[in-house]
Design brief:
With 51 residues, this protein is mainly α. The chain is built from four helices and no strands. The longest helix is centred in the middle third of the chain and has 12 residues.
């Protein structure tokens, strides 16, 4: 993972997921988790972008 993706994972999780995976179900899940709470969105972004 690049430093930019790591910073975006923390600050703007849906944007980081979008940059790595584009528009799709992963992005929708990231947006929903971030709306529920910031921490679930961050965790999801690290899990998805860590692959």
């Amino acid at each position: 993972m690049s430093l930019i993706i790591i910073i975006l994972n923390i600050l703007l999780p849906p944007l980081a997921v979008f940059m790595k995976h584009g528009v799709g179900t992963t992005l929708v899940i990231s947006i929903l988790l971030t709306l529920i709470g910031w921490i679930p969105g961050v965790i999801h972004a690290f899990l998805v972008n860590g692959k």
